[in-house]
Design brief:
- It contains seven helices and no strands.
- The chain is an all-alpha fold and 152 residues long.
- It has one domain: Multiheme cytochrome fold.
- The chain starts with a helix and ends in an 8-residue tail after the last helix.
- 9% of the residues are buried.
């Protein structure tokens, strides 16, 4: 067997092992459940139990799921955000360094803020066009209404 063929075989075995470990991890971690819109899927990992329990008691339980607030409204944005967050949650939880209690990232804060503004567009519009707010200031729904989606 020549060197080139042996190198290709080793690369194939390595890729196969990586794919196998990835698929097993996806199955073991119930990754498939995160493709749904079920808020219970967010509580697959114990670190989200407090947020899930808070959502069950919140005013938004009857009108919004986790995805409604924490992912963009378009399909590509939704699933790319879920994949991005899922990867980093898994990575930091496995490798260490996962902050408890979980904290929202700036990127996810912006997505959530945009969701608030979309659902409450009429109310928010009247606030954001107020003369008392300067163009350089941004009113944050989350700053004042932190406990609306899931009680803190």
């Amino acid at each position: 067997m020549n060197f080139h063929l042996a190198k290709l075989m080793i690369m194939g075995i390595g890729l196969g092992l990586a794919a196998g470990v990835g698929l097993y991890t996806f199955w073991y971690g119930k990754g498939y459940s995160y493709m749904s819109n079920d808020p219970g899927a967010c509580a697959n990992c114990h670190i989200m139990n407090e947020q899930y329990d808070g959502w069950l008691k919140s005013s938004h339980k009857t009108v919004a799921t986790c995805n409604d607030c924490h992912t963009p409204n378009d399909t590509i944005g939704k699933y790319s955000t879920k994949a991005w967050n899922g990867f980093w949650h898994s990575y930091f939880f496995t490798a260490g360094g996962f902050h408890e209690p979980i904290r929202i990232t700036e990127r996810n804060r912006q997505i959530t803020e945009a969701s608030c503004r979309t659902c409450h567009q009429q109310m928010v519009h009247s606030i954001t066009v107020s003369e008392t707010i300067k163009d350089s200031e941004q009113v944050s729904c989350i700053m004042c209404h932190r406990s609306v989606g899931h009680m803190h």
